[in-house]
Amino acid sequence: MMKDAIYGGVNAAVLTPMRADLSVDLDRMAGHSRWLLANGCNGLGILGTTGEANSLGVSERIAVMQGLVERGIPAAKLMPGTGTTAITDTVALTRTAIELGCPGVLVLPPFFYKNPSEDGLFAYFSEVIERTEGRAKLYLYHFPAQSAVPITVPLIARLMKSFPGVVKGVKDSSGDFANTKSYVDHFAKDGFEVFCGDDGALQRLLQAGGAGCITAAANVGCAVSAQVYRGWDQEAGTQAQQTLAQIRSAVTSAALIPGLKALVARNTGDDAWLNMRPPHLKLSDEAARALYSTFDACGVTLAKAA
User: Fold this and answer.
1) Which residues are catalytic?
2) CATH code of the domain occupying 9-232
């Protein structure tokens, strides 16, 4: 396990609650963030895929960052997603994160144009780093199933050489552990933090020298994730990992964002959690019942919100 990683440990890919008119509900989001930090999370990956970030405008994303800090969520615990297809928007979001005191940001590649060259991607990330004076640690977001633009080992090597100490890590949401481990093997010795997006890979990644996870399932499974992180080299951690893999399987048995919101709504008794922006739609009653049954079979009881 990597020691002294800035975001080492369990990071939730935080859900974004919304009101009936589909505006962001910052009070609920802050409450959920406090619950996550109290129940096993070391950090909070806000404005990512699970947080419906690409359904939010730039001004809305800025308001989320500012609103959480104003509501007492420590900026030092936040890793905002700031990657967009427009360099100027990515810079504006990254500058906001810097001004608030967030140590780093998670940056998608420019994902609209497919099959970009390595030179083109290098130029994009270089512009973002230079226009933000290298003041934020950049964590690259490898999610080829969604972005169709992979983050390769040669690209990372090139960025790290040109911007030492700035390009600090990667979140691998490919689900391909061989790829995740390749990042560790090439770069962990230089302090590069590797995070998995697959809860099922957490213990293996820690054993290989990775830093932790940034995952959707942590919205409901963070207490178990924390047991894996603490016991990564012990039998207790292995047992917890088996439960965590079951949780991952359960939450992915339904549409991920609607399913997670349904589970949080059930745990909080707050149906406002069922609001989300299209194209995501709330689960049907039948799908929700099936999800609850599958999740409950994991044997996990969630702590109630304060």
Assistant:
1) 141, 171
2) 3.20.20.70
